[in-house]
Amino acid sequence: MNMTEGRVLDRDRTSERIKALGPWFHNMNLEGVWTAPDHPLGDYPAMKWKRFSYAIPADLSGKSVLDIGCNGGFYSIEMKRRGARRVVGIDHDPDYLAQARFAAQTLGHEIEFHQLSVYDVARLGERFDLVIFMGVLYHLRHPLLALDLIRAHVAGDMLVFQSMQRGSREVNAVAEDYPFAENGIFDRPDYPKLHFVEKRYAQDPTNWFVPNRAAAEAMLRSAGFVIKAHPEEEVYICRCGTQLEDAAVYPPRGAAR
Known about the structure:
This protein has one domain (41-240): 3-Layer(aba) Sandwich (Rossmann fold). It has helices spanning 3-21, 46-52, 74-81, 94-107, 143-153, 213-222; strands spanning 29-30, 33-34, 64-68, 86-91, 112-115, 128-134, 155-162, 194-196, 209-211, 225-232, 235-240. With 257 residues, the chain is α/β, with parallel strands linked by helices. The chain has six helices and eleven strands. The strands form three sheets. A seven-stranded mixed beta sheet has the order 5-4-3-6-7-11-10, with helices on both faces. Strands 1-2 form a two-stranded antiparallel ribbon. Strands 8-9 form a two-stranded antiparallel ribbon. The longest helix has 19 residues, at 3-21.
């Protein structure tokens, strides 16, 4: 068998494995075979990554990265391509983890993957230089708790955050306090709001809370993050700030695990 025949055979095997692990939400090129060529959002998430990739250090040498809700592993792999010393991806879905492990192995990247939800991050027992938390918040029944847990247990320096947003894109100043008789403030389109989805949105029963822009930014601040850049419509680059003393974090910081 010559080299050309060998490459064709490898591509056929890769294609078969991709089909067996499907459907894929992350479209990636694995040995010449695309995992989701007919993705309804186009070349996703590469098309989104191109819009904000410049805002993340091009050289992550010596850095540790945690990818929460890693799905098929696209962002985990991109961080490894930037030289990250260690990359850990977590997801609650074993099917996505199987895809991520296969993609990383096929592309020759050493990445750790664990079946954990965002509510389990304390079990990792360490802080990371960079935490990626993209495309997860609106799938959670307890979104602010998730941000509190990330800040309390795993965020060491930088957070890359993204959430679907709906409602007003306006952000205006909100007072430190309002009297009980003031209720008109809640009717302002630019007031921080989480839109609750009782049943389904976009045919997805896991869409629970969708913030407007003001709410996304307010929740990040409330959880103890400082917004440093907003390079893409839904993406924020944050640094660790001071977490509220009464933030609801479970297990409590310092508790035995």
